[in-house]
Amino acid sequence: MTKDTAHTPPALRVVGHSVTRVDARAKVTGAAEFSADRLFSKHLLHGKTLRSPYAHAEILRIETAKAEALPGVHAVITYRDVPENPYEAGDASAPDGPVAPVFLLNRTLRHVGDETAAVAADTEEIAEEALRLIEVEYRPLPFVLNAESALEPAAPSVRGGSNLAGKVPIEFSRGDIDSGMKAAEIIVEQTYRTQSTSPLALEPRYSLASWEADRLTVWKASRNVYGDREKLAKVFGLPENQVRVIAAYMGGGFGSKDETRLGAITALLARKAGKPVRMGYTREEELGYGKWRHATATWIRMGLKRDGTITAIDATSALNTGPYAPGYGVASRLGHGLTYLYTCPNARFVGKVAYTNSPVAGSYRGLGAPQAHFALESFADEVAEKLRMDPLEFRLRNCVGPQGQPGARTTPLDGLLPAQPIEGGVPFSSNLLTECLEAGSERIGWKPHPDGPRKRLVSGKYRGMGLAACIYKTGQSQSSAFVKIKEDGSVELLMSITEIGQGAWTILRQIVAETLGVDFEKVHATFADTQTTPFAHSTSGSTTTFTSGLAAQQAAKDAQQRLLESAAKFLEVEPARLALRDGFVAIADTPEIKIPVSHVIRRQPDQTIVGEAKLRAGSKTHIINSFAAHFAEVEVDPDTGAVRVLRYVAAHDSGRIIHPEAARGQIIGGVVQGIGYALLEDIPMDPDTGAPLTLNLDSFKIPNLIDIPPIEAVLIERPDPIGPFGAKALGEPPLVPVAAAIANAVYDATGVRIRELPITAEKLLSGIRNQRR
Known about the structure:
Layout: E1 2-3, H1 24-29, E2 45-51, E3 57-63, H2 65-69, E4 73-77, E5 108-109, E6 115-121, H3 124-133, E7 135-140, H4 147-150, E8 170-174, H5 177-182, E9 186-194, E10 206-212, E11 215-220, H6 225-236, E12 243-247, H7 262-273, E13 277-280, H8 283-289, E14 295-304, E15 310-320, H9 328-340, E16 347-354, H10 369-386, H11 391-398, H12 433-444, E17 456-458, E18 461-473, E19 478-486, E20 491-495, H13 504-516, E21 523-527, H14 544-571, E22 578-581, E23 584-587, E24 590-596, H15 597-602, E25 608-616, E26 625-636, E27 643-653, H16 660-679, E28 711-715, H17 738-750, H18 761-772
Parallel strand pairs: 1-28, 2-13, 11-12, 15-16, 20-21, 27-28
Antiparallel strand pairs: 2-6, 3-5, 3-7, 4-6, 8-16, 9-14, 10-11, 10-13, 14-15, 17-18, 18-26, 19-20, 19-25, 22-23, 23-24, 26-27
């Protein structure tokens, strides 16, 4: 991995080193136990789901007697069996409060694949046969599949009322858009669209549920065991302490894995059957109904002076959220990208989240940021061309600097600043975006081109370069941790963070080891079990290293302080004069006077010293964001329209890097996902039936080895003053600017501007042919 040595901070003992990941051996040897692997009981039943063939329908009649009579069937559930407690009922903070309560199984079905019934049987084969024996009479209803159509006044109602989630758009702004547009000498506007696509994790989601009297235990692929516990307790009307959720190893999540009804339906089957039930998705179910990225349509209008100064940014996005999840967080992430990357005193974002009869959209790495940046960074190149300015120069002049946005602070002075701000008047805790742009352009060999696309021909194929900048929040949430120092000098960390492949279980131990000054191998941990580990946020939103890293660091400091206070009694000095070094507590200015840690701990009531932390991360004085600049070189075949990415450079400002090899993996993985999003992935819908048309890997194309270019990760590494040991977010930013960088490179190569993802050969050939006419 390439680093910018000018900004590499001094080395620490454990942080900043690529220690062996704690889950590496278990994963490569096959010892890691994923949610599908839990087969702890010979009485374990297998669940299967009957799904709606209609995009919108009412169940008039459902008969399950034949299925229930099939030998080996232990439970069949329909909408008649669900508890009365609403599930995914909507956001109570929305303008109209919770809307159209949605239950585990509905009498009204709102997308193809919606759950109609579920069965638990001795084998999967028996369960599948039972599904075929369930008789259902449906009454088809009118349906609508895309956001823009759903927001039309005459559109079919998806949930009984307005299709606009919350009934009013999300809107936030700073300054005055009208005055900003009046001050402009040039106004440019354009619309961009992005597609629905699936995270397609290697491991399909699974859940296993077991009851003991009125106590429920669920093992599942989860990024938020406490959030899952809260939902399950609500569904079944139980106190939360009677529900236990345990997260297994996760074979890829990318945000979407636990956002379905699977855990609750599995638990309902297990309760009715009186036996543990294991239930999972097939690859077809995962692709078609496992939660998609929101398809969007984004309109941008920008006012500028002729020298390139931006006077106003006005953007509106329509998001296809499917029938259930409101998607407000995704819309907010869109708005942050669109309004905060470029310095501008006047900015406004309007987000229209639309209910449709497409399958449910939800979290997927980056949420709305990839959609926002594809639109904004494609638009930035179009604006630069109109100004006859090089795209890199336009960004260097206008990208937001360390001082933040112009304007006035609106957050109260005693309040934590939002991770996704709109207001001005607040600086960033750190911002090396200019350095990212400069380093990335140097690595790729950027040549200025103020006069538009170069359309260079090399061996009969067009070549071009493109870039895109990126701003992304560092997640700020609540977290807690316990750190135990034991008699033998080992340390145990307890947290409810899930390992979703990003290396969290390793990085959090590194932070504890560095704080306590012990070897990494001496730190052990227990994670993600609501019975034994304290509350933590969802492992999402690029939150873990920053927020839970701060909690782990603070808990370790608390344990260290308690140890020093105890040792001070034996050494008869003030705790402030003591230091922890190599298994001893020593007087700092006379280190030969020391006492073994084991001696101190043996004299504790439980022979353990426990430190704890409970916090809400953030800052009252600074915005904590990460930044990146990506550069792509592409080749386009003018005869076939095929696009090949030749080289890719990704320069990132994510503060101090805790684990360099994990950081490199995050960047490369994010770029690979972004290449798929830009060039290949799409889930078209049958307009006549509302059915997804891409349900397996023979038609849902993802990048393979021949599609992946050399990817250079450049880390502009300078510790952030707020994060743990100076760390900021890195999990999601690498995916965010990729599609725009590639789209801009394709335009430079061909002169064809693609404003709707994915960038297919058909679209390019059509554009090339039009140029030749």
